[in-house]
Task: inverse folding
């Protein structure tokens, strides 16, 4: 496959290259793409050096797949141009997620919805991906009625400048900030911009994307998203009210048998998910599994995952793998 990585010089783009190499994705030609200021820069992949090209050049090279992680405005402008020449775009931005004509895909849950006709495919938000990975099998079995979600999100979700802000503050250096307040030794209840009714865009993504992926808008969902000075991944406290009752051991069994989910739940040995140990891994880790004693048919979970991997790069590559293995990539140029 001729594969383009758009946004290759960014934080998620770099992880996409790592994941493509680790998973031995079949690449006959690799095209590394970034903004004009990065054109000509060299990046290494499997020991070979590649020069970064611009978007116009990349479209002209007609890749089979383009993995996008270059921001919403870039995706809105350029994804259709790639699609016009037959490229299948897998986009990691928020640009296409709620488009009624675009699929929002977590492969373990709804990859079967994909067809050859899907030329722009949306990758969900990082916090949504790990959430629905844990919720989908439980929803199928017990029918979710309501969710209350609190997230504790890594600064890497904001990007490299946020990492620089934390490192500078740790060293006592006053420099440019991407957050409105100090993040070192702090917690900011402010992920993304504030929108309607006092909720942030990140909080509303959790609501809207979960409804779309699970194909069920009847689930009541409310969320609070908090940024914390952590690098390894996102953590989520999830309270679920089901239509049907459950047994805790049955919940553990369902989750343990779910591909991509690892149960870490042994409080006697202090075993529970933490971002420190999730970093660099592709699984979603679930623990602190316990009944909500205040309400019938209700459950508490603690869900952790590396937001740069399963929350972004790995999920996108898994979509590409599904398309490839099911012969759903058909570049119109080669037909």
Result:
């Amino acid at each position: 496959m001729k594969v383009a990585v758009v946004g290759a010089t960014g934080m998620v783009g770099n992880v996409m290259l790592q994941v493509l190499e680790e998973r031995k994705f079949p690449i006959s030609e690799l095209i590394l793409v970034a903004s004009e200021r990065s054109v000509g820069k060299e990046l290494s992949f499997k020991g070979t050096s590649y020069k970064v090209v611009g978007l116009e050049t990349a479209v002209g090279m007609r890749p089979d797949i383009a993995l996008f992680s270059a921001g919403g405005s870039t995706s809105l402008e350029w994804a259709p141009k790639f699609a016009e020449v037959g490229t299948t775009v897998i986009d990691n931005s928020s640009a296409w997620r709620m488009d009624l004509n675009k699929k929002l895909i977590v492969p373990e849950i709804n990859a079967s919805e994909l067809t050859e006709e899907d030329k722009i495919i949306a990758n969900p938000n990082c916090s949504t991906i790990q959430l629905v990975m844990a919720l989908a099998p439980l929803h199928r079995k017990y029918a979710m009625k309501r969710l209350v979600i609190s997230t504790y999100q890594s600064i890497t979700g904001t990007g490299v400048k946020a990492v620089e802000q934390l490192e500078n503050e740790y060293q006592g250096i006053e420099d440019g900030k991407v957050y409105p307040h100090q993040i070192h030794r702090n917690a900011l209840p402010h992920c993304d911009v504030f929108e309607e009714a006092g909720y942030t865009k990140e909080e509303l993504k959790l609501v809207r994307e979960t409804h779309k992926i699970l194909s069920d808008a009847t689930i009541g969902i409310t969320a609070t998203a908090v940024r914390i000075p952590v690098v390894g991944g996102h953590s989520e406290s999830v309270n679920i009210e089901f239509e049907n009752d459950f047994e805790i051991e049955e919940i553990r069994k369902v989750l343990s048998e779910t591909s991509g989910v690892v149960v870490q739940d042994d409080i006697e040995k202090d075993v529970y998910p933490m971002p420190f140990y999730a970093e660099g891994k592709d699984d979603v880790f679930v623990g602190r599994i316990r009944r909500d004693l205040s309400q019938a048919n209700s459950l508490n979970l603690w869900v952790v995952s590396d937001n740069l991997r399963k929350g972004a790069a790995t999920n996108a590559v898994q979509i590409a793998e599904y398309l490839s293995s099911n012969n759903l990539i058909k570049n119109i140029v080669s037909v």
